[in-house]
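> forwarded from #structure-qc
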């Protein structure tokens, strides 16, 4: 019997009941990766030997009666911008292609402590800048629902890996939508937690006031399980909250939504949306309403008109500062040069891809004297207004519903030379990062071409439980996320 397609919670239960050994589970996953990843390219590094060694260790610990952790035997994949000791961590960039971190990210430690087995590192847009996983030094990742299309980005490899059934859980990072948008395009769940819920120690920084780590999964229970494992105070990350976290599985016991108010964001109707996406949003609203929720219209006028502009000033500004450390001296690539200045210039020219260079240029420009007030300061003021608009909305409703992305999966190559159009893919997700709120993408059906459609649920700060409850009610009606059919179709 194969373990393929089981959720993480089921795997952990079956391993505990000794129905499967960890080694059997890990071999099943590695075989699936082996047969599909030549097409999908969701992985940058596969750690076969290490994973099998670890599986054997977990099996002998179980045999000697050691109490299993909540994820014992669960194979997982981690985005390649999270540090793994001794295992390449490239950020999909040439500049870090040979870099092996001397330490583990906090989330990597937490997964292993819970008994999970890390199989490898997933493909992504370079330094998490992008919405398609085409900006990768390791080639584009493909969407398992249609391999001529992108899986979304920047955590496209992790999303494709869960959608194709490599593993039940993978980690991504989300600065402006990089968990939710690929989850939406791949038909699975993707949760960006509240800023400060999960430690970012060992996450390679893109834009530090926006970055958060979160899980992809095919069931709501697996999302809650992931938060139980990952959400904790961490003194190594000063932005990580020191408050106690609840047991997130408790939020799934909710059966009715009576007394709950759900806000529908009016402005999304002004966008040029794919009609199947509007239909997906309506469908989700109907199910929530049937479960007892009251639907109310909510307006976020500044958020929906100026969020994108503010994000594409603030995120590049922070990136230009964070990426200054890749200078050919301290990390990764180092080009031959006669003097220090040419070492910097040659290394950065050869090491960074086009999109990363574009962000560094934009970021440096908006921070330069004479332009700082006009761009960076104005963007910060807009960010304040956006935060206030959300706070006002959450004084009236418990959660907000809107699309995750304006379009389903687009074709590989379609937007790669049109950065502004690519940036538009995050118009509904990035305001949530600007306000530091939790957001979850759930599947709301499929287009007439069979492509998944995502719907976004947004909660107030620390409102993960609230959105998990609603997602649980939805899942009871719609079923868990489906594994993409085959992943090998339409190769061209
Ligand atoms: N697509 C957005 C960007 O390119 C968001 C990326 C992310 O969330 N990491 O900046």
């Amino acid at each position: 019997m194969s373990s393929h397609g089981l959720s993480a919670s089921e795997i952990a239960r079956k391993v505990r009941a000794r129905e499967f050994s960890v080694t059997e589970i890990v071999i099943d996953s590695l075989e699936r990766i082996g047969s599909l990843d030549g097409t999908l390219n969701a992985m940058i590094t596969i750690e076969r030997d290490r994973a099998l060694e670890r599986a054997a260790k977990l099996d002998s610990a179980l045999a000697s009666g050691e109490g299993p952790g909540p994820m014992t035997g669960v194979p997982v994949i981690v985005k390649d911008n999270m540090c793994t000791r001794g295992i390449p961590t490239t950020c999909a960039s040439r500049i870090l292609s040979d870099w092996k971190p001397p330490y583990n990210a906090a989330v990597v430690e937490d997964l292993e402590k819970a008994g999970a087995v890390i199989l490898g590192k997933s493909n992504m847009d370079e330094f998490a800048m992008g919405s398609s996983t085409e900006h990768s030094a390791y080639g584009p990742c493909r969407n398992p629902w249609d391999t001529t299309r992108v899986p979304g980005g920047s955590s496209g490899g992790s999303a494709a890996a869960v959608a194709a059934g490599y593993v039940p859980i993978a980690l991504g990072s989300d600065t402006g939508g990089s968990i939710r948008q690929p989850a939406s395009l791949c038909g699975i769940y993707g949760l960006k937690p509240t800023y400060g819920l999960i430690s970012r120690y060992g996450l390679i920084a893109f834009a530090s006031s926006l970055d958060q780590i979160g899980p992809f999964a095919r069931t709501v229970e697996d999302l809650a399980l992931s938060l139980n494992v990952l959400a904790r105070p961490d003194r190594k990350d000063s932005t990580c909250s020191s408050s106690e976290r609840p047991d997130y599985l408790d939020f799934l016991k909710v059966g009715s939504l009576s007394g709950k108010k759900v806000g529908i964001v009016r402005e999304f109707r002004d966008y040029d949306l794919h009609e199947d996406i509007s239909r997906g949003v309506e469908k989700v609203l109907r199910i929530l309403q049937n479960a007892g929720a009251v639907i109310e219209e909510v307006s976020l006028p500044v958020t929906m008109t100026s969020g994108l502009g503010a994000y594409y000033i603030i995120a590049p500004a922070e990136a230009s500062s964070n990426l200054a450390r890749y200078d050919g001296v301290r990390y990764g690539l180092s080009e031959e040069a006669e003097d220090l200045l040419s070492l910097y210039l040659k290394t950065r020219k050869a090491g960074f891809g086009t999109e990363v260079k574009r962000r560094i240029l934009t970021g440096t420009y908006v921070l330069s004297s004479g332009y700082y007030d006009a761009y960076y300061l104005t963007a910060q003021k807009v960010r304040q207004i956006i935060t206030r608009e959300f706070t006002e909305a959450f004084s009236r409703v418990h959660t907000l519903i809107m699309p995750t992305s304006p379009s389903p999966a687009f074709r590989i190559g379609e937007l790669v030379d049109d950065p502004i159009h690519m940036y538009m893919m995050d118009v509904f997700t990035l305001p949530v990062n600007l306000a530091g709120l939790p957001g979850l993408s759930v599947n709301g059906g499929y287009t007439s071409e069979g492509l998944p459609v995502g719907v976004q649920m947004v909660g107030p700060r620390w409102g993960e439980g609230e959105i998990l409850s609603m997602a649980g009610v939805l899942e009871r009606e719609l079923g868990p996320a489906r594994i993409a059919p085959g992943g090998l179709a339409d190769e061209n």
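QC bot note: The chain has one domain: 8-301+384-478. Residues 8-301+384-478 form a domain with the Amidase signature (AS) enzymes fold (CATH 3.90.1300.10).
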